[in-house]
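Minutes, project check-in

Agenda point 3 was the complex the collaborators sent over. CS summarized: six entities, 786 residues total, and the question is how they sit relative to each other. Sequences were read into the notes so everyone works from the same version.
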Amino acid sequence: MNIPTKRREIGELTLSRITGGTGSAVVDSLKDIAPDLAEWVIDFSYGDVMSRPGLDLRSRQFATVAALTAMGTAVPQLRVHLHGALNVGCEPSELVEVILQMAVFSGFPSTINALNIAREVFKERGVTPAA
Amino acid sequence: MNIPTKRREIGELTLSRITGGTGSAVVDSLKDIAPDLAEWVIDFSYGDVMSRPGLDLRSRQFATVAALTAMGTAVPQLRVHLHGALNVGCEPSELVEVILQMAVFSGFPSTINALNIAREVFKERGVTPAA
Amino acid sequence: MNIPTKRREIGELTLSRITGGTGSAVVDSLKDIAPDLAEWVIDFSYGDVMSRPGLDLRSRQFATVAALTAMGTAVPQLRVHLHGALNVGCEPSELVEVILQMAVFSGFPSTINALNIAREVFKERGVTPAA
Amino acid sequence: MNIPTKRREIGELTLSRITGGTGSAVVDSLKDIAPDLAEWVIDFSYGDVMSRPGLDLRSRQFATVAALTAMGTAVPQLRVHLHGALNVGCEPSELVEVILQMAVFSGFPSTINALNIAREVFKERGVTPAA
Amino acid sequence: MNIPTKRREIGELTLSRITGGTGSAVVDSLKDIAPDLAEWVIDFSYGDVMSRPGLDLRSRQFATVAALTAMGTAVPQLRVHLHGALNVGCEPSELVEVILQMAVFSGFPSTINALNIAREVFKERGVTPAA
Amino acid sequence: MNIPTKRREIGELTLSRITGGTGSAVVDSLKDIAPDLAEWVIDFSYGDVMSRPGLDLRSRQFATVAALTAMGTAVPQLRVHLHGALNVGCEPSELVEVILQMAVFSGFPSTINALNIAREVFKERGVTPAA
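CS then shared the predicted structure for the full assembly.
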């Protein structure tokens, strides 16, 4: 309704850079059940938060992958953001490092489960972590 | 007993770079209750994991701060690793960005509670996040 | 063995009102592995707790859906209690509101994952959240 | 910068109804470390989410108290929202019911720890749960 | 009201063996806010669950200490059950082993935080883990 | 590279006793994505931690099953360690007791979800919990 153009535009741009998708795809995916959530994802998550200038997108994706690995309750989102990390220039080997590091902080199960998702994502992309 | 010199030396070096502390301080802090844990912290956490060459220490600390913020169950460790992040060159404003980003992934309470710890750490260090 | 008739009867009644199922179905589903758990579910969870007079069943189901959404580790139970919420008169749109609200408290992944379950439950029931 | 007046006004109103506080107090509390978070709290959390018309504020607070009790990682926020629940008309005894119900879903420790916070909140307010 | 004597008696006995406390102390501690919770603690937690014959109390306390360490959200309960573990014959060194083992499953912060609580409990009891 | 023979040998032995598998199988399963993790699993998790003499393997597996049940985020690992528990002499009925006990500490959903995994494991093994 009264969404400021600027948040929407900035959000769409960052959404596109990270996920490779469009705002309208987000809107479509949620319009049957919670259309306003699509606006929040675009305007708030990608517009207000992920677009902030104080940290580069590579670092932001390292942070996201670390958090989702540690939480262990966000498998679909970890998949999306591993793709997103690759989209903004993170190397597969760097993402493996972030996930391995979580063994210290949230335990080996969280690391192993996240690596299994990373393996699938890398396979879909045809990339491999350098030895 | 049979700790390889190399893991210990590498671990001590990275421990020192991140926490500013020494392995012997870790050993002292745990010798009354679980002396072997001190060895694991130095040899495994700092030696095997945090010292790996594939990711820079700044990115590692972003990942750690993100994970500990999202988990919400590791206040003393979040404090240590906010100090550690500053020690390896993360800017206060960058750490605030990582913590703010967690509002999206683990919710506002996790962000607010971590910011309150960051405020204390910044105060102890006499630093402030640039506007 | 010495289960008081009253807890059992009250539990069966509330179980039936919320889940639409019978105590004997619960008993059957657990008799091969942990028959006493069936008694705890009926007598304690539904009899002692969910049947208490101080809060209406609609509010109880809002609370349950909120908690299970935020926890993110109880997918089958979230499904059961979304059905249960509809059974006791919660509107689909109200359940969407409760789930959306969790974006603030436990983050967007918890909300999105719970909405995907709600979508399936609504589809099974042939209901839709009013716009 | 480009915050739409409407979100801010709506957010301030709901913030005031729930917490009894003002947006400027939120702004003041965060201006030293993360001023934009104050805007997110007012505009997004209270403006976009908690102000939505599809669910009454009492039910919203039941949902929040349930989630924060189950999470167990948000003690300051549980305190704020227990006050908030009382502010929007939840009875102390109803809040006790919501917390007790969590024993089933997130275990007895989560219930006992939340009750200890509720006891403090009730004492500050001079209210008691009716028997 | 209709609490079967047997659950109460069995619960009181096991409560006494584990915590060293009495049911009436539990009742007193909760009578101002949630008197029925005291009954659930005695009758359900200690009567129905912890008193079951299929597992010895030492093993039960190992399981409880492991779970509470891994959860990281139940500090007061971890304290109670470390005392309880000592009361039923667990050695301080065995409890340290259980807590150390959690480093693998839930991460180093969970282990370190639990050890700090164990240190306080051991000190209160005047015991030390054998080297 | 500089892995001490002793940690590796001890780790392989305990890995074999608990999982019935070999270190080389672990190495094979991770060599495409994170070969060093295989070394950590063998040398650290099984060599340094699970092989420690201060607690018998049965008690260790009770602790692991309790923690993984309570966490609710480690389904594949819970499966592995239920098998492991049977391998080191835990009775199916004892494992059911540990899982049931978690209803008190982490809630009924955690117990029910873990029991469903235990049922599958018991079926694969052709064992049943004694009544």
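Noted in discussion: Helices of chain C lie at 5-19, 23-30, 35-50, 57-71, 75-87, 92-106, 108-125.
Follow-up: revisit at the next meeting once the mutant set is ready.
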